[in-house]
Amino acid sequence: MLLLSLTLSLVFLGSSWGCGVPAISPALSFSQRIVNGENAVSGSWPWQVSLQDRNGFHFCGGSLISPNWVVTAAHCNISPGSHSVVLGEYDLSSKAEPVQVLAISKAITHPSWNPTTLNNDLTLLKLASPAQYTTRISPVCLASSNEALYDGLKCVTTGWGRLSGVGNVTPARLQQAVLPLVTVNQCRQYWGSSITDSMICAGASGVSSCQGDSGGPLVCQKGSTWVLIGIVSWGTTNCNVQAPAVYTRVSKFNTWINRVIASN
């Protein structure tokens, strides 16, 4: 992730495992120069999931939304038998972290997912056993169907994706980037009719998600809670920080997500 970075720390009230309130506070920053990523505070994005293959290779992100469910991108092509959900991960190179590695019992992809247009890029993962909430593992709040997005919202994307569009350097530690939302009209000026009302754009500000961040969260802070607004979906192949990155618009899928969870 390329990142603009102002130092400010966020103070959170204690949480009784409600959604969207990290027990360990994130520290966010942005200065006038672009830096190659910024390490997150360990444990400060407790809903962040690492999706890994049998060899422990991280290939996509995700977000914990309840003890039994994770949301990710359809294009991550999750196979329940071959892939697992890792919670509480921070440093991919460390074997000493108190992670939970959970099998996936079901991967339910949105019925209107279109791999050609990348529209409706959303898959729900049902965990084979429930996540145990800790100070480092807790869920994010889902955007409501009528979620209001306004100028000045503080939004952050997190992941272990490539640190630049050149070369294949990926970080061991979880990266975070503060980035602004981009209006649909601004986004269409860049991407044209590829942008549908099931998508939301962010960045174009000297910061971008990149390959490996796919499926991970775009969260915005509302009051003292963080709300899952987007799921990392697609962007430029070279992670151009002046181009808006595109995310699945979670508010459009709130009803479907709740229906799937209720019936499974």
UniProtKB/TrEMBL annotation:
GO terms for biological process, alphabetical: proteolysis
Gene Ontology MF, one: serine-type endopeptidase activity
GO CC terms, sorted: extracellular space
Superkingdom of origin: Eukaryota
Pfam families xrefs: Trypsin
Range of residues in the leader sequence: 1-18
Record SMART domains: Tryp_SPc
Domain Peptidase S1: 34-262
UniProt xrefs under PROSITE patterns: TRYPSIN_DOM, TRYPSIN_HIS, TRYPSIN_SER
Keywords assigned: Disulfide bond, Hydrolase, Protease, Serine protease, Signal, Zymogen
The keyword Protease appears for this protein: yes
Name of the protein this chain belongs to: Chymotrypsin-like protease CTRL-1
Organism: Octodon degus (Degu)
